[in-house]
DNA sequence: TATTGACCTCAAGTCGACTTGAATTTGTAG
DNA sequence: CTACAAATTCAAGTCGACTTGAGGTCAATA
């Protein structure tokens, strides 16, 4: 049993069949052939789907993910382009760390309103600073749109 | 000049006026009053908007953000609920670190297809492991939907 | 051989977060 | 006082990523 049908892939990955078809349509994955009408997938599709899921967690669109690691294994993005993405992620990671700290603070701080707490104010300032640095550093960037990220509904 | 009109807020934050109105409609912020028809905002709205932006970066929906730190300053979420959110963020951060490492690897690895590179394979395995742990740890979680996150278009 | 159930295609619908456009209402500069 | 730029409301539209539904196909089992 080297090849899997779509339901098997779905079971292994937790991704809905309709989504898997969608990814194929968009060129992020490829099926190795058909048995009758039914798609057959090789085992490599599992890694590819893991990669897609990962990319979506990072907030990348399917297009962007395809450009970074499409099914052909050849990134359509230049080396600097990829490093750029990695740098974006680094910044995003720092932002999330700040957010996490703020949430924990809100959970633990006894102040009646967190907005009145000096520590919280300070956390906001920090994240604000970071944001301004970004703007300054990137200086008139071309306005990439940054689409949806969802957690897969376990339907 | 203690109060700002919507365009001033928009300028300070980089958030479109229409979005600011949208946030008010959804109850994430409040204007302090009107001059004629025009909304007037106090300075605190800037921090609130920073918080909203931050939350969106974390992939939280407006509803979720409102529950964590609404304009009233009182989280509608229980303490464990908030820690839960923070834990989610921690996991997400680790995932993003893995993704960042993979992207950097793709950028630098000379292998013809990254899928053939053992190091890359290994990175996927790691992220896969992480994911499985999550599933195991949380055991039939109630399927939160996880809406859009966008980078603000500099319109 | 006849059913059956999994899979197929294609069009249309959904969801969140906004944006856009049309018609209307100002505060303020000239 | 009038004109105008800037806000306002409300309805409708957009975008990405899927999901859903109707109607059709086919390999394998009874």
Automatic annotation (TrEMBL), chains A, B:
HTH merR-type domain ranges (all copies): 1-71
Domain of life: Bacteria
An annotated Gene Ontology molecular function: DNA-binding transcription factor activity
Region of interest (Disordered), residue spans: 128-155
SUPFAM superfamilies, sorted: Putative DNA-binding domain (SSF46955)
InterPro entries in alphabetical order: DNA-bd_dom_put_sf, MerR-type_HTH_dom, MerR_fam, Tscrpt_reg_MerR_DNA-bd
The protein's name: Transcriptional Regulator, MerR family protein
Organism name: Roseibium aggregatum (strain ATCC 25650 / DSM 13394 / JCM 20685 / NBRC 16684 / NCIMB 2208 / IAM 12614 / B1) (Stappia aggregata)
């Amino acid at each position: 049993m080297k090849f899997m049908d779509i339901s098997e892939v779905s079971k292994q990955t937790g991704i809905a069949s309709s989504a898997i078809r969608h990814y194929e349509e968009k060129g992020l994955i490829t099926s190795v052939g058909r048995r009758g009408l039914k798609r057959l997938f090789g085992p490599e599709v599992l890694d590819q789907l893991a990669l897609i899921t990962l990319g979506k967690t990072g907030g990348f669109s399917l297009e962007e993910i395809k450009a970074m690691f499409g099914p052909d294994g050849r990134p359509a993005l230049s080396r600097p382009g990829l490093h750029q993405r990695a740098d974006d992620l680094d910044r995003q990671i720092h932002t999330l760390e700040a957010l996490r700290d703020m949430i924990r603070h809100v959970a633990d701080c006894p102040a009646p309103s967190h907005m009145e707490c000096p520590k919280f104010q300070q956390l906001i300032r920090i994240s604000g600073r970071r944001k301004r640095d970004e703007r300054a550093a990137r200086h008139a960037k071309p306005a990439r749109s940054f689409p949806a990220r969802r957690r897969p509904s376990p339907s």
